[in-house]
Write a structure and sequence with these properties.
Helix content is 28%, strand content 31%. It is an alpha+beta fold. The two termini are 29 Å apart.
Length: 160
């Protein structure tokens, strides 16, 4: 594993650089993008996957609105703002969406998943039966349709 803010390779070394679901964790994104640009060949492509601001976590948060649950989400690099951030460093940025959803048939599986998320740590204080009732009340035909919002950007061309 390497630090994207200090990539230990020479200039113009790679045809492709991939950042899979991680740019929202980078504290100094402009520096990281300059490093990616530095190690890409002139005709190279930077692929970076991320999530959107209207996906699974937001849907789950909405379902749990009636409970004293706070949800903390990191929106520093998303499908909604990533193009603008990349355009500061690359001349050609394309957004590619991946349409997907989660079809939940067992509310307890989703409760276990939610319980594992650091952004929903308050959920541990809510009785499991109460959570299950809310999720099952939102099921249609025994299925809870949970929207997901994922995609990626393909960025090329050096912006000077």
């Amino acid at each position: 594993m390497i630090d994207i803010k200090d990539i230990p390779f020479p200039d113009k070394e790679f045809d492709v650089v991939i950042a899979n679901m991680m740019l929202y964790h980078v504290p100094d994104l402009p520096r990281a993008l300059r490093e990616v640009r530095r190690v890409l060949k002139d005709n190279g492509t930077f692929y970076c996957a991320t999530y959107g601001e209207n996906g699974m976590m937001e849907y789950i948060g909405h379902l749990l609105d009636s409970f004293p649950v706070s949800s903390a989400h990191n929106y520093s690099f998303t499908l909604q703002n990533g193009e603008e951030k990349l355009a500061e460093h690359f001349s050609d940025v394309r957004k590619l969406l991946y349409e997907d959803a989660l079809e939940v048939t067992d509310a307890d599986d989703l409760i276990d998943y939610i319980d594992s998320l650091p952004g929903f740590s308050d959920i541990r204080d809510i009785p499991r039966d109460s959570l299950r009732a809310v999720l099952e009340r939102n099921m249609r035909g025994g299925v809870l349709h949970v929207p997901k919002e994922y995609g990626m950007f393909a960025a090329k061309g050096i912006r000077e």
